[in-house]
């Protein structure tokens, strides 16, 4: 569902990266491991269209990201890519439910309350919908972040260090939820991390070397 | 979720930050709106009372005082003049109408004015109930005076000497109310009208000497209001009047514009201060949005990730600034009405005048427009910065 070809990227006056070709099909999970500085986040941002490659191609569901720009790219990303970060960056002023609804609204998709209930049930958030993010634990916040990434039924979920700031118990819970939720939604899941605890969970792995 | 709701949530989540901007805006806009309300209504009141009065003749003294006393009924009169002298001026061919006024007494703070039927004609007064006076010590009450003093046709009262209401009572003659006037929106609403003879008789009684001899009180009046047939009167008559010893002619239009000229710098100063406060409010909106931009950069970046175009983030911050500016200005309009209500309780006692509170002054639409402009200006820079947010670098930081 997502594939990259001959991706290269260079920061101005900074490191240059040349990435291997990667592919991940719908319902599958790919783990990309690497030390810090290996370009994990850069690769993930290239795959999500947050950065433009110097050369090479990213295709999501057949769509070449290089062919889109500006608000069109933003909208495509909103609908087709679910991003999960190390910290979930929820909107403090909104309760959990509104944070989640915002995902579909910003992607200009109609509300889908059934799906919202399904996703929040799966992630064990049903009781937390009316709380503000500041009143949730880190693990709970991370689960809200995953739910938000799922709400537009994206083709691809890109996760950047989703478990690094969690303790062992939450790490296992969040990782398996992410995996199950992505499979349920039929999305390709690409996770980049240096978290060795995830190594045993994902059969499909790739190691970035700087 | 639309942006209006989202902005509202953002503001409501940190009410204290918003409060300062709101307070400043409410204060500035409230002050301007109060000035507007008071000025338009005073202007209205001044011109309406001026209707049909070209010249006022009275005793020598301050011309402004003469006008305030005899046209607006708020100051002490300058003194008395002989009716005979005034009448001789009134017979001039250029005079279309002359209305004599005689002061001296009041009833519980409301002035009793001795005059003739020309007064009702000049102010286009109509009776709401009862009839006009026909004999001495019959009186007609203005609408506001009747309401405040609970006067109805048939009621009687004793006048007191002087205009302040603290004088000695004239207990020899009781006045009888024969009619109540319709509200006219002029100073006439605040008066009790009677014949000139009533005033003369009341004071003639006082002048009776202990020996039992009856001395006729001099037939004096306090002022005479003149309306000319044509503007030529303005050239011909004042000069002649001012040549008579003890007499002066005052032009209401000139005196009123001189008065407003004197108040002008004061009002301008207040207005400038209010504009300054509103500007300060806009700066405080700008600072609070700009300050929070750092801590909000992740959630703004996240909104981009979720599909929002850059300009939408700008619109979000602009909306927040606009909500603050407009809510503040609206609170200001409410505040100025409260101020007017407070002013009314004071002005009603001192000047027998009440401002209309539930009305919109013409300039207030401009005031709201100005608040919108300030909101846009305050939201522009934060909005611009939010739209230019570097998505990848911001998210990589966190």
* Structural Rg of chain A: 16 Å
Share of helical residues of chain B = 55-70%
- Enumerate how many helices of chain B there are, as a single number: 12
Q: Are there runs of chain B of 5+ residues with pLDDT below 50, and where?
A: 209-214
Biggest β-sheet description of chain B = 6 strands, mixed, barrel
General form of chain B: elongated
What form of chain A results from the Cα inertia axes?
globular
The overall pLDDT average of chain A reads 91
Biggest protein-protein contact in the assembly: A-B, 35 and 26 residues
Strand order of the largest sheet of chain B: 3-4-9-6-8-7
- Sequence of secondary-structure elements of chain B: HHEHEHEEHEEHEEEHEEHEHHHH
Distance between the amino and carboxyl termini of chain A: 26 Å
Which percent range describes the beta-strand content of chain A?
A: 15-25%
Q: Quaternary state, please?
A: heterodimer
How would you explain this protein's 3D organization?
The complex is a heterodimer of chains A (210) and B (398). With 210 residues, chain A is of the alpha/beta class. Helix content of chain A is 34%, strand content 22%. Chain A contains six helices and ten strands; from the N terminus they run E-E-E-E-H-E-E-H-E-H-H-H-E-H-E-E. Chain A has helices spanning 40-47, 70-80, 96-106, 113-122, 138-150, 168-185; strands spanning 2-10, 16-18, 23-24, 29-34, 55-60, 63-64, 81-84, 156-160, 188-193, 205-208. In chain A, the strands form two sheets. In chain A, strands 1, 2, 3, 5 and 6 form a five-stranded antiparallel β-sheet that branches. In chain A, strand 1 and strand 2 (16-18) form a beta hairpin. In chain A, helix 3 packs parallel to helix 5 and helix 5 packs parallel to helix 6 (168-185). Chain A is globular and about 45 Å long. The two termini of chain A are 26 Å apart. In chain B, 57% of the residues lie in helices and 17% in strands. Chain B has twelve helices and twelve strands. In chain B, the strands form two sheets. In chain B, strands 3-4-9-6-8-7 form a six-stranded mixed β-barrel.
